[in-house]
Automatic annotation (TrEMBL), chains A, B:
Organism, scientific name: Tissierella creatinophila DSM 6911
Enzyme class: ligase
Self-association state and partner proteins as the record states: Homodimer.
Enzyme nomenclature, EC number: 6.1.1.22
Family recorded in the similarity comment: Belongs to the class-II aminoacyl-tRNA synthetase family.
Protein name: Asparagine--tRNA ligase
Phylogenetic placement of the source organism: Bacteria, Bacillati, Bacillota, Tissierellia, Tissierellales
Location of the protein in the cell: Cytoplasm
Pfam families recorded: tRNA-synt_2 (PF00152), tRNA_anti-codon (PF01336)
UniProt cross-references to PROSITE patterns, sorted A to Z: AA_TRNA_LIGASE_II
Occurrences of domain Aminoacyl-transfer RNA synthetases class-II family profile (ranges): 134-452
Gene that produces this protein: asnS
GO CC terms: cytoplasm
Amino acid sequence: MKTFVKDIYKTDEKYLEKEIILEGWVRNIRALKNFGFIELNDGTFFKGIQIVYSDELSNFAEIEKLHLSSSLRVKGILKPTPQGKQPFEIQATDIEVEGLSSSDYPLQKKKHTMEYLRTIAHLRPRSNTFSAVFRVRSIASYAIHKFFQERDFVYVNPPIITSSDAEGAGEMFRVSTLDYKKPPLDNEGSIDYKEDFFGKETFLTVSGQLEAEAYALSFKNIYTFGPTFRAENSNTSRHAAEFWMMEPEIAFADLKDNMNLAEKMMKYVISYVMDEAKEEMEFFNKFIDKDLLSRLENIVNSEFERITYTEAVEILKKSNKKFNYPVEWGIDLQTEHERYITEEVFKKPVFVTDYPKDIKAFYMRENDDNKTVAAMDLLVPGVGEIIGGSQREERLELLEQKIIDNGMNPEDYWWYLELRKYGGTKHAGFGLGFERLIMYITGMTNIRDVIPFPRTVNWAEF
Amino acid sequence: MKTFVKDIYKTDEKYLEKEIILEGWVRNIRALKNFGFIELNDGTFFKGIQIVYSDELSNFAEIEKLHLSSSLRVKGILKPTPQGKQPFEIQATDIEVEGLSSSDYPLQKKKHTMEYLRTIAHLRPRSNTFSAVFRVRSIASYAIHKFFQERDFVYVNPPIITSSDAEGAGEMFRVSTLDYKKPPLDNEGSIDYKEDFFGKETFLTVSGQLEAEAYALSFKNIYTFGPTFRAENSNTSRHAAEFWMMEPEIAFADLKDNMNLAEKMMKYVISYVMDEAKEEMEFFNKFIDKDLLSRLENIVNSEFERITYTEAVEILKKSNKKFNYPVEWGIDLQTEHERYITEEVFKKPVFVTDYPKDIKAFYMRENDDNKTVAAMDLLVPGVGEIIGGSQREERLELLEQKIIDNGMNPEDYWWYLELRKYGGTKHAGFGLGFERLIMYITGMTNIRDVIPFPRTVNWAEF
């Protein structure tokens, strides 16, 4: 019977001493005199399975010369191997070669640099590290959907192509079908975007939050999960031009509800991945980051701390620690500050709330002190900030003034303002950069290594 | 206790005669002399719940003047109403107004045209039709993830920004950060894309299939589900510039496996939505399309027919039916042909396979007759084509020749070709336009009405 390697590992009793058929790729091959071993990986499971073949096979000569990554159809008996490293192996009765490989296969059995592996992004998921990373990425995506859907949140797809800048921060990619060589001009000699595909200037979205708010004010609890873009010229290990973001938005909810949701979600997703990708997580803990599992267990089991920005600043000032960026009330916290608070002071995840309004976005709700806004950042050990969110300004006049104060035009936000005019209510939400979460869960340190085909400054290969 | 309208409908015994708190929006209000009725919708459920209020409330005067869509916090007792249209109502003991609305609220209780509702896309999910559409969209998204994840398919996010044209069909949006007014030129006076953000010309993806194949040849079974783009100047009810596509790709699999997967998936997703969105589906069946539920049940319960293109052409020729596009072997089937086959001949979904190679994409596997390729389209009553797929050409030399014959440069496809060089295997996959599926499931006839904020020619509002 045709089966998957995963099924054999999960319920081997069912298959022991039976004839089974497996289809997969040669991860390793060792040819001895009259027999040999193949480690076959079929992609369904982190581990492969050992195939024993002998010169009783009619195509023995072909088999023993196979190159890595050849694809095979193996028929054989699953045998227990009580003395072996693995609990079973397959004694092949027939091996059919589906597709040959070649001696110049770029993913040989040796240590490759991460940089090199990025140049073979079409093959790297065949390595242990990247098969683990991208299976975890898939499982974590599903955990996010599962968490929200089981709580009746409505999944919303905000537009990717947009004419508004949700963050008011610039750094957007232009989307256009105009001819760059001869763009149409208007009477004043400016580019005439009325002639462009959408009849106006358009960009790739940096966040679906504003549209998400419209849906939260219809469905109460919603979430988005999709690609977002930043045309930021940052060549760092933590910035990509294209990344996935998850943004829940909840109505009739304040900052406390928002933190409760973020805490529950983080714990759920991490637990789910630890349960569903045990082999992959053990691999990361062994080869990528020896503290990984204990750090993640700490997150799942601890009650997240909650402090205000003002308290955080006091802690930092009292610390007598020398920071590169000196601490004063009003500054934006830097990674060194965030990591000190979460790693050295509390040794667990910490929500920092109520930031100075001048360093936060226009849509955040102003507190009664007129100095701070109902913002929250979640800081976690090993990374610093992983989630950013806020209660949104629901008071029409205040929001309108904020837009004006930020040098934006209220007319561009007419529909966003209308959400406050027609049955507005307190509401809140947050954003989680999905790749940052995957880096956190896997211990991988470069964002390029948790995206199948990353896009960064000067890099859009494949 | 604070609760959701959904919970009350699902387990009303738990709440009857109890004091509960609900938060939601006024969908309807009827003020009589000393009392009145409010239909409160909290977004968690298609139906609202009736609130009875009386002049015993201290803010009775405020309540009876509320405009549609005001947001409220209602405290009251859930009472059974054996004579009523609904099984229960809430006798309010306290109503707190969270957010007022206004007499110019644009979504008044009257019939609006779909065109008008598109101009208030931020408010239309508060209407019955669109709350149903977008909840179904969310549930169907989840059904797709659930179907594949429960079968251990790995979810892959192929890049949105790309330098290759997967379909070889053109009509792509350019993505750039160059200054349109003064683009950098190279020595020959052409735009110097080396100066652009990615150091090369880039576009929005039309399909993640090629990248998906790389992952299927690592993980065996994978799927993608994300936004794709077409800069097509088609102002029809079925074309959007931005839409979501779902593309599974399976290795060690042929066209028959591909059809089996598509059939199972379609049945699963439709059944799941019919189970999980009963109220919404009844609404569509009553107000949008009276044949909807019977058509969907027919899909779930029938075994899909499978015929070849050549057989389809024979059937069409023998039909004596007058088509706008005359039928000859070699033509691409038009919607009128597809609908005749699925609606009038078989009266159920039909896979048509093995199309002439000249009308299909370069990557489809050539059949032994040298005339056709192992392609499949799924035709369904009421729509025509809803899924397109194929077995992929896994033979290196043949694929390379096909690329050349199509006027493309094999060097641009070096990594795609390498997938055939290093342990290639037969593999197959298909694409499902998610919005077309939602139109099919809901009976909505315009793609603009199943996308929260649609993007079409000359339209990128919100």
